[in-house]
Amino acid sequence: MAKNASRWPARSPIRGVFAVLFALGFAAPVALPAAAEPVVVATRVIHPGEPLDASVLTTIHTKSRVLSDAPFVSAIAQTNGKVADRTILPQRLILLSSLRKRSAIDAGALVPVTYKSGALTIRMDAVALTSAAPGQAVTLRNRDTGRQIEALAQADGTAVLLP
């Protein structure tokens, strides 16, 4: 073995400079803490289809920036008239994609259907195959013929066929 050779390979002086800078905190820019951000969380488990009201929600302020790319509920007013689409766990972010409008027509319900064209008005009952919020399309099955039809759901729980 050579007289000047050591067990450890020689270190580059640049490597030592980076180690010192890193130890002093100069290696990467340090992010300053952001202002507290309001976040709405549930106080208990909310199951799918269950309406959200202010009694089961609370607003907390986070100490740092919320690390979520998905839009989340930041005010209790954003949950008015909405129901849970997925299970919402307590003290967790409530994503807007986890909420949906309250259904005016539920799947399996008997729905009064109206068709209007000028002076002609036809009324019948049909079975809803899908749930729908007001203004959404709903698929219905005619009880007499078994044919499927699509109509527009109304806020009062009825459906209107479009000409």
UniProtKB/TrEMBL annotation:
GO biological process per UniProt: bacterial-type flagellum assembly
Family statement: Belongs to the FlgA family.
Its job: Involved in the assembly process of the P-ring formation. It may associate with FlgF on the rod constituting a structure essential for the P-ring assembly or may act as a modulator protein for the P-ring assembly.
Subcellular location: Periplasm
Keywords from the UniProt entry: Bacterial flagellum biogenesis, Cell projection, Cilium, Flagellum, Periplasm
Source taxon at top rank: Bacteria
Protein's recorded name: Flagella basal body P-ring formation protein FlgA
Domain Flagella basal body P-ring formation protein FlgA SAF residue range list: 38-158
CDD domains: SAF_CpaB_FlgA_like (cd11614)
PANTHER family hit by this protein: FLAGELLA BASAL BODY P-RING FORMATION PROTEIN FLGA
GO cellular component, one term: periplasmic space
InterPro entries: Flagellar_FlgA, SAF_FlgA
